[in-house]
């Protein structure tokens, strides 16, 4: 073993515990949902969660510059009319062009 590569036992325990908890949440969520009945409001909330998380991640970056805000508006306008891969590619192109122009 190399001299500079010593791992503290407490640090190793934290890393293992974090990995275990991450795995449990990944496996436990679907396991729990399969065993309980949810009402319409809970189902609607669970279905809206991915979009809400995406907006929470994208909105700060999209509103940081006027060029990015315009590119975001452009993608929102075309996203329902073209396939998602095309919308993403056009969005990236819009950001590049608008950042150079503005």
Structure notes:
- With 102 residues, this protein is an all-alpha fold.
- The chain has two domains: 7-36; 49-102, no CATH class.
- 79% of the residues lie in helices and 0% in strands.
- It has four helices and no strands.
- The radius of gyration is 22 Å and the shape is flat.
- The relative contact order is 0.07.
Note the main attributes of this structure.
single chain; 102 residues; mainly alpha; 2 domains; 79% helix; flat
Largest β-sheet summary: none
Class computed from helices, strands and strand pairing = mainly alpha
Shape: flat
Q: What's the count of strands?
A: 0
Q: How big a fraction of the residues is strand?
A: under 5%
> How many distinct domains?
2
Please report the number of helical segments.
4
Topology:
Blueprint: H1 9-35, H2 40-62, H3 66-78, H4 84-101
Helix pairs in contact: 3-4
Transmembrane segments: 6-24, 44-63, 69-98
Protein name: AzlD domain-containing protein
Keywords: Membrane, Transmembrane, Transmembrane helix
Outline of this structure?
With 102 residues, this protein is mainly α. Helices cover 79% and strands 0% of the residues.
